[in-house]
Amino acid sequence: MQELAQVLLIAIQLFAILDPPGSIPAFLALTEGQDESGRARLARTTTWLVMGLMVLFALVGNYVLAALGISVESLKLGGGLLLLALSLDLVLGSRREESGEDESVVVPVATPLLVGPGTITTLIILSAYHPVHVLLAAVALVSAMAYACLRFSSALVRLLGKTGIKAMSRLMAVLVAAMAVEMIHSALLAWGIAEN
Fold this sequence. Notes:
Layout: H1 2-18, H2 20-30, H3 36-68, H4 72-91, H5 106-114, H6 117-127, H7 132-151, H8 153-190
Helix pairs in contact: 1-6, 1-7, 1-8, 2-7, 2-8, 3-5, 3-6, 3-7, 4-6, 4-8
């Protein structure tokens, strides 16, 4: 039961950082002219790429830290600052929407829109604290949620409207900002710079 709670908590954190609702406008713009089956295929391909990237960083995160001689606290501080900057960018609405041809849809949506530096940093930090099977289960869950957002993007826009999608994206950004501050505070606590 405790592991299930961990999986859900990690999945919520990753969902907030990935912010699939925030990628819907870019996905729709990039797949303009595609029919529903074409969009479904691209949503599937994008999701597999997103999941593959997240699995990679979940598995090799600890080794990357060890190879580079970086402490978890240093990564928390750096990652927290990065996440804070990204979340402010999202809240202020200056996130750049990608555009391009049909064949280049998957890469811009998968990375950097979904799996960007914030996601990578978070996965590496999480890999230092959680068992691999818990991380992989959370990655699978959040990948399924991202797929649902992309696959049913047209329906979500019709249901929530562009304003609703933007509001959801801004809410995710506020959650990411809170997580970033927590990371920074945790690193400062570990170094004895801050007090609890």
